[in-house]
Amino acid sequence: MEELIVTIVKALVDYPEEVVIEKNEQRNQVLYSINVHQDDIGKVIGKQGRIARAIRTVVYAAGTHTSKRIQLEIND
Predict the structure, then answer these.
(1) In angstroms, rounded to a whole number, what is the distance separating the alpha carbons of residues 68 and 75?
(2) Cα 1 from chain centroid?
(3) Which superfamily is assigned to 2-75 in CATH?
(4) What is the tens place of the pLDDT at every residue in 44-60?
(5) Residue 63, pLDDT score
(6) Which tens digit of pLDDT belongs to each residue from 2-23?
(7) Looking at the record's lineage, which domain of life comes first (predicted)?
(8) Three-state SS string across the chain, please?
(9) pTM surpassing 0.90?
(10) What average pLDDT is seen over the chain?
(11) Which distant-in-sequence residues (6+ apart) come within 8 Å of 20 by Cβ?
């Protein structure tokens, strides 16, 4: 799952070498935190959050085979 998120986010940003994904797994959920360069935050979020919503949709769809809830967080 992390590879999928990294691939999507790196394609969107100007500083792909600064993309960092942190995984925090708990009993019934997995939280992925995305950290990007300060100039790239707007590109990952998109206008009115459309890009972030699309990334979340893809990640949720890819994670349907697991019994854990997947959350995606974009840190600024």
Answers:
(1) 22
(2) 10
(3) K homology (KH) domain (3.30.300.20)
(4) 999 999 999 999 999 99
(5) 82
(6) 999 999 999 999 999 999 999 9
(7) Bacteria
(8) CHHHHHHHHHHHCCCHHHCEEEEEECCCEEEEEEECCHHHHHHHHCHHHHHHHHHHHHHHHHCCCCCCEEEEEEEC
(9) no
(10) 93
(11) 34, 35, 36
